[in-house]
Design the sequence.
């Protein structure tokens, strides 16, 4: 049985999809993964087929550059980009999916993949690494409100806040529908030869929606639809990884350092952020490993110095590095948050917006990190205070260790594969 798995987004979106693809491949499926060209080597080195999609990660992330929050305005820009990409996405997905028996989408591709699956008359399954489904438990993360809205409220106040939380998802759906629906309907007609709207079928039970995060980090809200399953995280491990000699030497030369990395998040002044981070490390007398990647750290780093040793790395597997550090400072992306929690080390989150704010709130609520620092309010002094709190508070450190143990005991990929197989067995004419 052939599966096409779509993952539009940054590495934090693609890497869990690769992990899921490997799990499906081990279960006997023939798996190919459709993503941006820059992820070809990541996908192919793990033995999965690769289908390139147009555009690139930086084009997506530039929608947020210079914005204080990854919220309404940024979402509008992202949707405008998807408008331009609509025909290309439909054409590429349609061509890539011919001959496939199952299509698996992530949140960014679900509307496109659903239509292609309808044309091919095959099942499709939606996945997500963050919670975007309406609930009374917490509000949509695309908005100016706090992720803690409604927390610890009881009685009438709690009921009202719960209703507001659930309603907060409607504006996002309205915007998506307003900007994308006409294009999708046109592409359904012109490219796929389908009617504007998908007809309802009563002979097929709803497909499972797979949430690739842990119930120990975000408990499943009781008002979600029954077909939404929280499986546990989908980790891509690197057993046998050999670090660069310079990095290993740095780790061996002293106490565990602090990790700092902001993924691919853009910035108007990358040099200023690098200076700020190094200042905070100097103030706390901590050693640091700065992850440069394609993000905002390390610009002009040869001209910078620190009273405490600092080591820069461009790329390093989180599953190898993070268990070897004293604390992890990052932007709160779903993948990096998952890696930090699994490693059992305190996390200090500096969210830009969207689901990053939700994960930052959960880290604080679970007591595995200090209060998050919004990116717009980041200073060397605030970061230094958070570092000191994270590495010296024994309760935070112990809670991080305990939570990491629970996460490592889960098999998120295995649970997801099991749900996929069960659904395929129930599909008319299916059976695996």
Sequence:
């Amino acid at each position: 049985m052939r599966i096409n798995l779509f993952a539009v987004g940054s590495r934090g979106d693609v890497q869990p999809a690769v992990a899921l693809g490997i799990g499906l491949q081990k279960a006997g499926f023939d798996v190919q993964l459709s993503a941006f060209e820059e992820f070809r080597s990541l996908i192919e080195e793990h033995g999965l087929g690769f289908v390139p999609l147009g555009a690139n990660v930086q084009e997506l992330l530039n929608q947020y550059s210079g914005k204080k929050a990854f919220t309404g305005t940024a979402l509008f820009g992202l949707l405008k980009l998807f408008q331009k990409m609509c025909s290309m996405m439909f054409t590429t997905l349609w061509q890539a999916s011919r001959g496939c028996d199952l299509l698996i989408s992530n949140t960014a591709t679900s509307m496109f993949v659903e239509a292609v699956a309808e044309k091919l008359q095959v099942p499709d399954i939606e996945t997500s690494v963050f919670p975007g489904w309406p609930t009374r438990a917490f509000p949509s993360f695309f908005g100016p409100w706090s992720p803690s809205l409604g927390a610890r409220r009881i009685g009438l106040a709690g009921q009202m806040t719960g209703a507001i939380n659930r309603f907060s998802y409607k504006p996002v759906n309205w915007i998506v529908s307003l900007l994308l629906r006409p294009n999708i309907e046109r592409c359904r007609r012109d490219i796929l030869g389908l009617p504007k709207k998908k007809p309802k079928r009563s002979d097929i039970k709803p497909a499972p929606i797979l949430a690739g995060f842990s119930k120990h980090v975000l408990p499943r809200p009781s008002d979600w639809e029954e077909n939404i399953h929280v499986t546990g995280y989908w980790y891509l491990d690197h057993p046998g990884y050999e670090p660069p000699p310079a990095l290993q030497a740095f780790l061996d030369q002293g106490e565990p350092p602090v990790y700092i990395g902001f993924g691919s998040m853009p910035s108007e002044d990358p040099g200023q952020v690098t200076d700020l981070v190094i200042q905070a490390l100097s103030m706390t007398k901590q050693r640091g490993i700065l992850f440069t990647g394609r993000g905002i750290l390390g610009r002009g780093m040869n001209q910078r110095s620190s009273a405490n040793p600092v080591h820069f790395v461009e790329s390093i597997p989180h599953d190898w590095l993070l268990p070897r550090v004293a604390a992890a400072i990052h932007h709160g992306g779903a993948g990096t948050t998952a890696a930090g929690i699994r490693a059992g080390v305190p996390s200090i989150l500096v969210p830009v917006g969207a689901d990053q704010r939700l994960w930052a709130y959960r880290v604080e609520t679970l007591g595995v990190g200090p209060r998050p620092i919004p990116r717009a309010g980041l200073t060397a002094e605030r970061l230094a205070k958070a570092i000191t709190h994270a590495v010296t508070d024994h309760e935070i450190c112990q809670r991080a260790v305990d939570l990491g143990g629970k996460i490592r005991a889960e098999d998120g990929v295995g649970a997801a594969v099991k749900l996929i197989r069960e659904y395929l067995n129930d599909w008319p004419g299916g059976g695996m």
Observations:
- The radius of gyration is 22 Å.
- The CA atoms of residues 350 and 375 lie 5 Å apart.
